[in-house]
Amino acid sequence: MNKFLHFIFESEVPDIGERYRKLASGLVILFIVGYSIGFLQLMHLGPYLGPGLGDDVSFQPLLNSLSELHSQAPAMWYALLSLLSFTVLFRVVAMLGGYFLFEREEGQPYPIKWIVVFFLSNTLSALAIPLVLLALGTLFLLSGLSFDIGWHWVEHNVNVANQFVMTHVPTLVDAPAPVAVFSIAVISGFFHYWFHRLGHTQRFLWLLFHRPHHMTPALIQPTTMAVFTALPLFIFLILPYNLLFGACTKLFSSEPLYTEVIIFNCLILIPEIFGHQTALYQIGRRSRLIRWASFFSSNGVYHYMHHSSEPEHCGQNGTVNLVNIGGGPLFIWDIIFGTYCPLSTKTPRAGLSGQPELHLNPLRLTLAGVAQIGSELLRNPSWREKWRILVSSSAYSPPVSTDFAVKHEGRKHTQPTPTVISYRYSFNAGAAPSANVNAELITEQQS
């Protein structure tokens, strides 16, 4: 049994040759189409709410809104349907461009190995959700309560939050719909900003919840690890998240604003797709329309700066990822709290700080945060250290610690003067080029 566990945790996805490119491209296309259609289930949700963090996550609210609009205002129905169609089509084209233009922008095709590793990691994270719910249901059953409480944990928490908000949160200003949506985005964006920022600065949240989203060394949508499925934390944030953002909504509107929120989400989702596309960074940076739309939505091509692995790109005190955190339109909270960063003329390299070499094992990457926290708690006997492991900043490392995601832990790249550092992707030597791509550090003499 130990040998089997060692094998599945220590082995890595092998090199995958270019002869499998068509198969890999088919997988990417299938994901992109399904992802774009699936996003329609979320269009009615308020700003910054995701699956399980709002009301009904299905196509039904969207269909209901369209049906109601068709009977009351046919012209508006046609306009909204056109906007929805354009948003979905634009996102499909942009995601396809992020993959198929990668070779033109970066010098070689997107590595098939990365597609397999990070796509499987995403899949494992998503599949873990029902396992966590099953475990919760079993715990409730063993405690003498109903299994359904745990199995339907998401629905129960959403209902509790919605009932509390509708009963106890007043509507301060029943504002016109456009003003209400904008106000909700600004106010709720403050909390979104700080939750996201804590996801980087608080080690428990970073390791268990947010670091997987920043692991990918070069971004396309299928290999960008989803935040909301990260293990195991999101399940336990549903109630406070819904209470907080539901309250922000109720303050400015006594009734749901489904149609208005759908329009708002359509507009911000158009530039949003540029935030996770390495090959589209320069296209987005050079397009005035994409830049303006990204700045308005506090996302888009500016969000790609947030994924930079290079401290020189607006790093805060030598760290990365603490820029363009988002939350609220016009980067209002980034500007106020000093984390706004303009676009770099050079495409930043994505990933963890310094692009360390990762263990390319999907299961290991998925469970790396859980394994690290658990290992640290077991191997550090001091109760003071155990407490610090759970509550310290992400910069803290206990006396005994193992990073299960990163190889050569602690290795740092130095930048001697008078040289500058740039990154280049290079293939392993061999007659037939493989897709095993590593980040190779190269120093070039300054001219």
Descriptive notes:
The protein is mainly α. The protein has one domain (about 20-335). About 55% of the residues lie in helices and about 5% in strands. It contains 18 helices and two strands. It has helices spanning about 1-10, 20-40, 60-70, 75-100, 100-105, 110-140, 145-150, 155-170, 175-200, 205-210, 235-250, 260-270, 280-285, 290-295, 300-305, 330-335, 360-380, 385-390; strands spanning about 420-425, 435-445. Helix 3 crosses helix 4. The termini are far apart. The relative contact order is 0.14. Residues about 410-445 have low confidence and may be disordered.
Task: Please provide a brief summary of the model.
55% of the residues lie in helices and 4% in strands. It contains 18 helices and two strands.
Structural topology:
Layout: H1 2-10, H2 21-38, H3 60-72, H4 74-100, H5 102-106, H6 112-142, H7 147-151, H8 153-168, H9 177-201, H10 203-210, H11 234-252, H12 258-272, H13 281-286, H14 288-297, H15 300-306, H16 332-336, H17 362-379, H18 383-391, E1 419-427, E2 437-445
Antiparallel strand pairs: 1-2
List the helices and strands in order.
Answer: HHHHHHHHHHHHHHHHHHEE
Give the structural class. Answer: mainly alpha
N-end to C-end Cα span = 58 Å
Largest sheet, spatial ordering of strands: 1-2
Approximate strand percentage:
under 5%
Q: How many H/I helices?
A: 18
Main location: membrane
Protein name: Sterol desaturase family protein
Pfam families: FA_hydroxylase (PF04116)
InterPro entries: Fatty_acid_hydroxylase (IPR006694), Sterol_Desaturase_Related (IPR050307)
